[in-house]
Specification:
The chain is an alpha+beta fold. It is elongated. The N and C termini lie far apart (48 Å). A hairpin with a 5-residue loop joins strand 4 (87-98) and strand 5 (104-114). 30% of the residues are buried. It has helices at 26-39, 52-63, 124-135, 141-156, 170-173, 192-195, 197-209, and strands at 9-15, 18-24, 78-80, 87-98, 104-114, 120-122, 138-139, 160-169, 184-191. The chain has a 5-stranded mixed beta sheet with strand order 7-4-5-8-9, with helices on both faces. It has a two-stranded antiparallel sheet with strand order 1-2. Bound molecules: guanosine-5'-triphosphate and zinc ion. Guanosine-5'-triphosphate binds at residues 98, 100, 140-142, 169, 171-172, 176-177.
Length: 210
């Protein structure tokens, strides 16, 4: 990237509870958005649109901040607990951007795991923070889903993990096929929750109960 003539601005903040320094090239996004406005036949210099490229640049820096966060850091705090049964957090809000159209998809994630033999658990909020870090990237729902499951397996070494995500995709509602209200359900199951039908059925029934 030619940083000499690009006024790259350092935007910092927190995402998923992890400090993020993100050197986002806001000026480059602004220039691109101005081009888009011109291309669709708008006047980017009219009053209402004058600040739009800068606003969109800041919004994109926020929406894609997950690209600059190491998700494993979210799970850096773990606790020992004498709990060998399922832990399930339902209805975690998901807001992400589909990588095909850069339009939002939104819905909920349900994340469950059975702690490993060392009984290591994580704070419940960390599951929601993990969703946020992976969602704030250009995504497809399937990858978002499996990334969450795989990281939990790698970091917590649980007996099993189940992640179910249900989302509505704006690229299907607002454009293209224009089927508003359809929801896509994906799942990723790992370890005991994949291999043991009884454990999986118990987790699924709790997830589907809502
Ligand atoms: N598997 C998957 N597909 C997605 C996701 N988000 C959007 N899509 C789909 O990505 C596909 C891209 O297909 P293309 O044919 O390349 O693009 P398009 O011409 O804009 O497709 P249409 O949406 O059918 O008009 C579409 O079928 C979208 O519905 C996602 O999270 N997972
Ligand atoms: Zn899409």
């Amino acid at each position: 990237m030619e940083l000499d003539h690009v006024a790259a601005r350092l935007v910092s903040g927190k995402l998923g509870g992890v400090e993020v320094e993100r050197n986002v090239d806001l000026k480059r996004i602004e220039a691109a958005v101005r081009e888009i406005l011109l291309a669709v036949g708008e006047d980017p210099d009219r009053d209402g649109l004058r600040k739009t490229p800068a606003r969109v640049a800041r919004a994109y820096a926020e929406l894609f901040a997950g690209l600059r966060v190491d998700p494993a850091q979210v799970l850096s705090t773990t606790f020992e607990a004498d709990h060998e049964e399922l832990v399930l957090v339902r209805d975690i809000e998901v807001m992400s951007m589909c990588e095909h159209h850069l339009l939002p998809f939104h819905g909920v994630a349900h994340i469950g795991y059975i702690p490993g033999h060392d009984g290591r658990i994580t704070g419940l909020s960390k599951l929601a923070r993990l969703v946020e870090v992976y969602a704030r990237r250009p995504q497809v729902q399937e990858r978002l889903n499996s990334q969450i499951a795989d990281l939990l397996m790698a970091e917590l070494a649980p007996r099993g993990v189940i992640v179910v995500i249900e989302c509505e995709h704006m690229c299907m509602s607002m454009r293209g096929i224009q089927k508003g209200g359809s929801r896509t359900i994906t799942s990723a199951v790992r370890g005991l929750l994949r291999d043991d039908a009884k454990s999986r059925a118990e987790a699924m029934s709790l997830i589907l109960r809502g």
